[in-house]
Amino acid sequence: MEIHQVRYFLSVCRNRSFTKAAEECGVSQPALTTAIKKLEAELGDPLFHREGRRINLSPLGELMQPRFESLMGEMESAQEAAKGYRLLERAPLKVGIMSTIGPSRIGNCLATYQYKNPGVDLEVHEGSLEQLDRKLRDDELDIAILSSPQGFDERYRTQLIYAERYLVVFPPHHRFKNQTAVALADVSDEHYVDRLACELREIVMGVCGQRNIKLYANFRSEREDWIQAMVAAGMGFAFMPECSITHHGVLARPLIDPEVMREIRLVRMPGRKLTPAASAFMREVSAFNWQ
Questions:
Q1: Is the dihedral of CA 26, 29, 30, 34 positive or negative?
Q2: Cα 14 from Cα 128, distance rounded (Å)
Q3: Residues 134-149: tens digit of each pLDDT
Q4: Which of 98, 182, 216, 259 is close enough to 168 for a disulfide, judged by CB 3.0 to 4.6 Å?
Q5: DSSP 133-180
Q6: Do residues 132 and 211 lie in contact, with contact meaning Cβ atoms separated by under 8 Å?
Q7: What is the pLDDT of residues 107-137, one digit of tens each?
Q8: What are the backbone angles phi and psi of residue 118, rounded to the nearest 5°?
């Protein structure tokens, strides 16, 4: 059974005429008649019978008509969905973004992309580097926006989006407010709010150990909003990437000696075909002004 045979059958049902059905379908009457006869042979019984000059449905034809109409409806729906997918109308896009990456810059890029592609169903998955890496490899994400201290090996294809500094974040009444920058040595013996989810945490802690810089963590959390809220409440300072600071009740100064930077990268799996929505997203990321 072929789709064109079903289409010819339904046209005869509407027109009650092989001649008119052939005109509607844009084929010759012999071609349409042959296709109907092949369909009848597959089904094992006639679909039509004649009563004088009028063509009527046979009992089998009456049985098959609603089923074939449903089949054609599903086929047209599938074709419309495929067309929308190609033209970015109701096209899905799943993007993974690390929970430690701040929303300010990324959010503006996502908003611009959505404005230009209103038909895309954009779905953001938040998680740790390890969680999003697994989802990317398992094909649960189209693209991920990640930062890794160790970089990415040949299993991944990456594109640098932007680099950002780490800042020292502190409450407004803190002594650091009179400084233009904060050296790592300056934070020794200060009350410290520990960002457990920070991918550079072990590196910073290692440098502090090497330089005999003592930190007293009186609050720890994996949540960025809690970290900033506790800093604003006066529980201590925190190390944070500059684009992750969203709380209006904190102040920040650049961390120096050493200066700490991280790279934010667009990551995908090589060899995996990008969807039209993902390709458009990559173009937007490349063209976006990240300053």
A1: positive
A2: 59
A3: 999 999 999 999 999 8
A4: 182
A5: HHHHHTTS-SEEEE--TT---TT-EEEEEEEEEEEEEE-TTSGGGG-S
A6: no
A7: 999 999 988 888 888 999 999 999 999 999 9
A8: -65, -20
Contacts of 94 (CB under 8 A, 6+ apart): 123, 125, 140, 141, 142, 143
Q: Which two structure tokens, joined as six digits, stand for 50?
A: 């004649």
Beta bridge partners, 249, equal none
CATH topology of domain 165-261: D-Maltodextrin-Binding Protein; domain 2 (3.40.190)
Lowest mean pLDDT: which of 26-40, 70-84, 135-149, 211-225? 70-84
Q: Residues for the chain: how many in total?
A: 291
User: Which class would CATH give 3-86?
Assistant: mainly alpha
Alpha-carbon span 131 to 125, nearest angstrom: 10
Cα separation, 151 vs 142, whole angstroms: 20
Name beta bridge partners: 240: 167
Residue 258 has pLDDT above 60, yes or no: yes
On whether the 91-162+264-287 domain is CATH 3.40.190.10, my answer is yes
Residue 120 has a pLDDT of: 87
Q: Band the pLDDT of 41: cuts 50, 70, 90.
A: very high
Domain boundaries along the sequence of the chain:
3-86, 91-162+264-287, 165-261
113-130 exposure pattern, b = at least 16 Cβ within 10 A, e = fewer: beeebeebebeeeebebe
d(CA 145, CA 278): 13
Assess whether the region 3-86 and the region 165-261 belong to the same CATH fold. no
Strand partners, 146: 265
The pLDDT assigned to 87 comes to 56
Q: Look at residues 243, 224, 96, 278 and name the one whose alpha carbon lies nearest to residue 162.
A: 243
